[in-house]
């Protein structure tokens, strides 16, 4: 079996998570990991069986044994590293978003295209069993022509003020997953966005000029309407649901729970709460997205969520912010060929 | 036990439904029923034990034995009959909407206020066991401060073109129930509306300048956001669900089904479809709303959905239409005292 | 419309319940009610619109206006009244069980047969929407050949010691409904019974030589196996479920709840408890069984649960008690024609 | 981190499954694997990174690098290998059942005790998230004193005739998992068994003197009653559910499904079927049981299902068969100390 060697740029939580998953796979190994702060990283890498640790990501990009890189560094660095990685001929897996600027993202993607390397964006939810099933049901025509989409996406608790200040705002940081999910399930481009937001959970978030509660309306090229509901704090756990409704039916997904047990007592009838957060809910999805990327690289196969998917989600996020500020719906232009057949 | 005698004006489907329910109650009887078309009505009334049948509703209004009237005639006649009934000193139960014009409704309600009679508007869904429970959960503070509301409201099939042409449009005919439900559950006034609509089900509906698919965004005085999803055709049955989310939790209601049976075979695992339509789903709610009205009249008690509730729902429907036409959010003004304590 | 007049013998809880339901029906009226203790009954009957009240049930049996009687008196009196009612030519609705002795029941049923009157036994659960659906699924062949049946039947709290002392024991009082349900759903006779019991809830029940917890195994003529689980005390409410499994699938019914609402908070995710007890759970079933009896009498139609059904359930209850005492399975003999086509 | 080296005896489906899981763990490796038939095993072992392949399990037992062995060979060989492994000082993980004879199992366990090695029996379901939750709920006292237990355990299709002929019969092959589950959840020994069986699925199973459908009643030392329902063929998939009921409540577990999606169309409302069979349903449980064994060996910790658990389940299976043949309940004797505190 052919073995792929990869490098990981950025050894934060998500970089380490990918590394851990990769080291348990049979056809791929992490050859190098880089981070600007490498204190303690040696020990961890040694336990994980990763031979090379460096504070300079160029070491990763220029290692001839490495065929693909995982870009898990802060968003502000993504675009530059993508361009360099593309020029170095490495296939690219990049965490979302590519950048906070559509123009910057477009430049980075142009470099990817020129280099002819593959690029996958880390929209892990496309690999979740529930959302994948919803997409398959829609694609199979079981709900007929899509008319309405609803995505409920709520975190169990808000991130730190520091994180929020660098996050690009709710739409770019959190809703971007939902924008991608909307395109993935509906298989049609978003042509109009209207966004409402509120600061209901923590005044500190408002002080950072961000919102913590939002409703975003989407209008799709196929005529359907969509809604995304966001909250930074659902006290009962990570709430990740979706419903697609059409001329022939409706598909509804619910949350995963730790068990199916139902406990009935004199006090009431209780079931488990939803799994706590993304690490619990999307464990299999994180593994699956990497397996899929590895498969695509090794066998020159298609990428499930590619550079254009990253770009489109960012464009919608950008339009949502514009709508929030203006209080009016915002249109998105689409050339005839922006949506690839999937 | 004191016996209330009522008259019913309008012997269409809903008028006959109320009559049937009333005749099965122990403290109220239908004394008279009127309709412009009384062909065959005598026989039916005789079987139901209703002594008086007339083609002139004034006979009902002037019958001294009658203390309350149910106005079930076409919407265009409501306001005038309300005024006459109020002047005649009759308590009033009126089907929704009171009128298609906020001004007309306000005039009618002024007459009610002047006469000092009670008036209930037929928002039967307030009496549904599922929605009532959601409201109680919110009112008890179990979800904390409300942040988000979602109402899913889909009919199993569109009405006839003739009905639609006189319906006042989707918002005034169908969504009006959801507008009332939003106020009922959130216990806060709607201060802004944004509406999107589409004609996806039947082109004939579009030819009548109406829509069959809609998403309506609400902003409440308490800062919460709300969404209503409408479709005129859910092929799997009447879809009536609601979710209210807040700082301390979330309450979600599902559809009622004919049975709890789950059938697992080699082909799949199947449960019953939602109950077909409003007559099936809201049977108990229709009975309950009448019982409540009768109780309020007999014991001079509070009305669960009163004249002002009817007016506010119409105002929101009107604003929604304005938003649909303009493509922009529309604000609603509220004086300090429009929302009554409930 | 032809009007049926009935008499009710025994004005306890169930007699009054039937009277109340009948007075709300359009084709039947209670003409007379009898009870050995008529203190206060006059007032109640007057409010209900029942013209005749008597302490002697013979007055009911000999009233020429009355075509059918509801026997709701204590079990010890059922058999004698059935015989007299049959001789008087009255159709009979009798609460379960007919008697505590199979021989006594057989004598009473012989009188019914001789007189050619109709007789229905009050197995109200046959008319429950969930159990009816399970039966229909089995009858339609959706689960193929039945292999296994499970009935879970638990009360929310035990009856009084006084009630238990006259009840005939758990099998004759409580499980008898489940024995009938087993035959109804499986559409095959029980040919062997094995019963286990325990006194786990209240030692007073054991002092009365009764049990409060039981598992009863059934073997059916069609080769299938069945299980009934009983408890006199489920602290979370009335637990009434059933599952039938066969060569082509499985049908499972769950409890009814007051609403479909699910409330998620930091403490957990909660749904409503099952409806409290039989009056709540089986309201519609009680109405339906009477409507069905009235229909059968008025239109000379078939009886859904007839005298033989009452007899067979008692025979199984008797065998279960024998098994409990002997600690061994007990066989039931069946002639070729005991199970009627239904 | 200390690394455990293990050997696997028997390279059938389950032996290979354990090897695969072990090779993905970070603190344990498979050093050797043996099978009487090693055709093709070399290639597979090489891909898995297993250095030693042998046709003689003694090579595994005498390898000084190996500290623990997984016995995955046919049941008829278990007891002898256990004795030899114990004498060789190896810790033992043995698939169920230890043997088809209680005496043989007792001898093997005596050798384990003498040698002072740890032994775990492969009751993987104890590690299933649903059953583990049910056990935890019972142990935490949430249902109070246990009164009733029900286990529904149905395979999606029967094994081959050849497998059945060597399986030891339904109780020893299939129900043995349920017997162990009953003890695990109820935390009390089984003191009486009554078993009923039938051959309803495939006459070939009857020709092999086995049954394919069964109901087994259990009576526990704590006074509770239990029921196990078995079928060799549930056409809708692997059906693995449990309910424990007690003085303070009830815990019910349901099947796992591939997704939470619900699809509503004009044809009905459908959810996913249960996961197909044990490899799908118990993937995580298989991993967890090995991780737990490794932890117990490395850190000298307790074994979740030990040699005595294996013995007790076999004793119940034996008693069930005796009951099936005699048609009567069979008692099991228990000394005061057979149930270990867990």
TrEMBL record, chains A, B, C, D:
Transmembrane segments: none annotated. Its EC number is 1.1.1.18. The gene is iolG. Belongs to the Gfo/Idh/MocA family. It is an enzyme of class 1 (oxidoreductase). It comes from Paenibacillus profundus. Coiled coil: none annotated. Gene3D superfamilies: Dihydrodipicolinate Reductase, domain 2, NAD(P)-binding Rossmann-like Domain. This is Inositol 2-dehydrogenase. Keywords: Oxidoreductase. The lineage of its organism: Bacteria, Bacillati, Bacillota, Bacilli, Bacillales. Residues 131-251 form the GFO/IDH/MocA-like oxidoreductase domain. SUPFAM superfamilies: Glyceraldehyde-3-phosphate dehydrogenase-like, C-terminal domain, NAD(P)-binding Rossmann-fold domains. Residues 5-123 form the Gfo/Idh/MocA-like oxidoreductase N-terminal domain. The keyword Oxidoreductase applies. GO terms for molecular function: inositol 2-dehydrogenase (NAD+) activity. Pfam families: GFO_IDH_MocA, GFO_IDH_MocA_C3.
């Amino acid at each position: 079996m052919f073995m792929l060697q990869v490098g990981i740029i950025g050894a934060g939580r998500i970089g380490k998570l990918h590394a851990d998953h990769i080291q348990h796979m049979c056809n791929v190994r992490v050859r190098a990991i880089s981070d600007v702060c490498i204190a303690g990283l040696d020990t961890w890498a040694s336990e994980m069986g990763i031979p090379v640790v460096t504070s300079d990501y160029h070491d990763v990009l220029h290692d001839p044994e490495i065929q693909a890189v995982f870009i898990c560094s802060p968003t502000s660095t993504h675009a530059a590293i993508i361009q360099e990685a593309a020029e170095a001929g490495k296939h690219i897996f990049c965490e979302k978003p590519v950048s906070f600027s559509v123009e910057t993202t477009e430049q980075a993607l142009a470099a990817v295209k020129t280099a002819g390397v593959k690029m996958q964006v880390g929209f892990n939810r496309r690999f979740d069993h529930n959302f994948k099933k919803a997409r398959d049901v829609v694609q199979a025509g079981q709900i007929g022509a899509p008319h309405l989409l609803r995505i409920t996406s709520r975190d169990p608790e808000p991130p730190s003020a520091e994180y929020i200040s660098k996050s690009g705002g709710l739409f770019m940081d959190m809703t971007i997953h939902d924008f991608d999910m909307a395109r993935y399930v509906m298989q049609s481009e978003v042509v109009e966005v209207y966004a409402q937001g509120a600061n209901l959970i923590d005044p500190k978030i408002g002080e950072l000029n961000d919102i913590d509660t939002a409703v975003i309306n989407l209008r799709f090229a196929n005529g359907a309407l969509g809604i995304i509901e966001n909250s930074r704090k659902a006290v009962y756990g990570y709430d990740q649901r979706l419903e697609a409704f059409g001329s022939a039916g409706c598909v509804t997904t619910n949350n995963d729970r730790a068990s199916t047990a139902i406990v009935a007592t004199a006090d009431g009838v209780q079931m488990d709460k939803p799994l706590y957060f993304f690490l619990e809910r999307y464990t299999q999805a994180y593994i699956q997205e990497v397996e899929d990327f590895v498969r695509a690289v090794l066998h020159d196969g298609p990428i499930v969520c590619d550079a254009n998917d990253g770009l489109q989600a960012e464009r919608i996020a950008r339009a949502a912010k514009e709508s929030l500020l203006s209080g009016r719906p915002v249109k998105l232009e689409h050339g005839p060929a922006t949506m690839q057949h999937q």
